[in-house]
Structures
1.
Amino acid sequence: MKLENKADWRKFLRQYVDKIVANGMVTTLFTVIEHSLIAGDTVGVEGILTIKPIVRKGRVVKNKHTGEDITVPDKRTLACVVRKEMKEKLNKEE
């Protein structure tokens, strides 16, 4: 089963709880994760992955067509690191 978006998560959870509870759980979970990352906090899913905000430093690049220098400012983005336990499970030989 793919769990790529909120609708997929809601559908999955409806197997275990009613529709209203599933919608509330998914909305709350995604909101908490979003607010935590925006605030600069690291979010971890026990034994699976860690998501943390990072800052890519600004730099000066050249425009390919004109040769003009362009300043690219600092940007915030996310880094996702798969935890050791999950890597071992994924690569476990059966």
2.
Amino acid sequence: MALYWSAAFSTSLYMTQKLTGGSLNPAIAFGINCTMAFSKEDFAFRYIYIYELCPLAGAALALIFYQYVYAKTQVNRDSLVEAQAQS
């Protein structure tokens, strides 16, 4: 199990290295971009929308999953438990 987590973490670091410098914490990556704005590099805020839109998109996907997948399985499970209790 630890091998899967370490492989996922290593892959995530490798994929985000050019964008955030390998930082997986959005607050730290945002702070790095803010400090880069004071340097000579002009691309500091090119990807700023990622820090605002991606957490909102993830929350929306989690809400959709909860509403249409998880909640329906719990309703079916509760009705089965009630039917078994009555019989």
3.
Amino acid sequence: MLAQLEVFEPAACVSGGTGADERAVKQFDADVQWLAERGIGVLRHRLRHGVPSFVSNPQVTQGLQSGTKRLPIATANGRIVSSGAYPTRAELAELLGITHADIGVPFVRH
């Protein structure tokens, strides 16, 4: 079972992005809520307000050497498990050891 999931996000997750970006953020917001309903917390850091969190994580700092296009970066127990896109509900379930029967259907109103 995963001890900690952290997500390092761009400064502006929605404004200025494409419609697809907006949908991805909304879906991830719903997936974070879905995890919370199962007692699993997700720490989220935005580049605009959470620079110290980015700098203090050597994996994220190294990942960003090639630029911010690698954001969002998700880490689990100190290692990068996803970058460049938000993990899907199925990917989160796999990382967290949640059975596929418990995944349900991701639903976000667009």
